[in-house]
Amino acid sequence: MQAKSTQAKTTWKQLLARGEPLLLPAAHDGLCARLIERAGFSAYTIGGYALVGSRYALPDVGLVGFGEMSAGMRDIMSASSLPVLVDGDDGYGDAKNVARTIQGYEAIGASAIFIEDQKAPKRCGHMAGKDVIDADTMVAKLRAAVAARQSSDLFIIARTDARAVHGLDEALRRGERYLAAGADGIFIEAPQTVAELERVGRAFSGVPQIANMLEGGGRTPLLPPKELYGLGFAMVAYPTSLIFRVARAIETALADLKAGRPANNGAGVDFEAFKEIVSLARWADVEQRSAAARKSW
Question: In sequence order, what are the residues at sequence separation of 6 or more whose Cβ sits closer than 8 angstroms to the Cβ of residue 151?
Fold first, then answer.
């Protein structure tokens, strides 16, 4: 487990007040979260797509419930002291399930959480075949979420997937209603053109918004963070960037092993570098101090 800072964790609102885009690579395991922190990022996200794919080798189509997801997120969060945005999916049921989801993730240290208005079984926001619940039901879920949090520092983001189902106008209408219900931020999933991104940014000017940059085949155009920030998106999430590259690296390594090829220099970290990543020296120090203490008894 990563040693936690004794200082108070920066709140999500403080991160958003820095006047620059908040970049959110998605961690799918504890090692990934550790590397994100070592790389100098201010925060990260844990998305259902990457977590379900990595932990269970399953597609993100509603096969994994709150208990399994929260266990995976707890493991990931234990490896980093950074503030984290977690994927609350659809809250795993009705308003009472949403309340439990909020309380559960807040208890294990989430800094922010988004809840979406998909109809079960939910699926990745860039997949075909999804549907949404009615807006009134989602409003009730969001009110339950806001009432369930113990601290107003927990940043609640309302996501709508209505763009793919009912068009952008309906997605924007839902965004307005979700803000009125108490959401702190808005996540209009899967705008399909730069013009749509511009329209979303204008519609919620001054409200913290997420742009979801799904590299490797998403529906939304990939724009640089500064450009997205200029359009009104304070948060830029990268839900597939790391998991897709990791999957390819593993395939390449396995092909090399199967063919009897030695690893290329620089293709991976070496033994010493990996020991540093996983904090071997700190644990060795714990072991040595324990042994010294026993000798003094």
Answer: 106
Taking only the tens of pLDDT, the chain with its 297 residues reads 344 444 578 999 999 999 999 999 999 999 999 999 999 999 999 999 999 999 999 998 889 999 999 999 999 999 999 999 999 999 999 999 999 999 999 999 999 999 999 998 776 757 676 899 999 999 999 999 999 999 999 999 999 999 999 999 999 999 999 999 999 999 999 999 999 999 999 999 999 999 999 998 889 999 999 999 999 999 999 999 999 999 999 999 999 999 998 877 778 898 899 899 998 989 888 888 888 877 777
Q: What is the pTM of this model?
A: 0.92
Q: 3: buried, middle or exposed (CB in 10 Å: 19+, 13-18, 0-12)? A: exposed
3-state secondary structure 216-282: CCCCCCCCCHHHHHHHCCCEEEECCHHHHHHHHHHHHHHHHHHHCCCCCCCCCCCHHHHHHHCCHHH
* 50, containing H or E segment: helix 48-56
CB 94 within 8 A of CB 139: no
DSSP class of residue 106? Answer: H
Chain centre to alpha carbon of residue 146:
19
Report d(CA 216, CA 239) in Å as an integer: 10
Side-chain-side CA neighbours of residue 114 (13 Å): 29
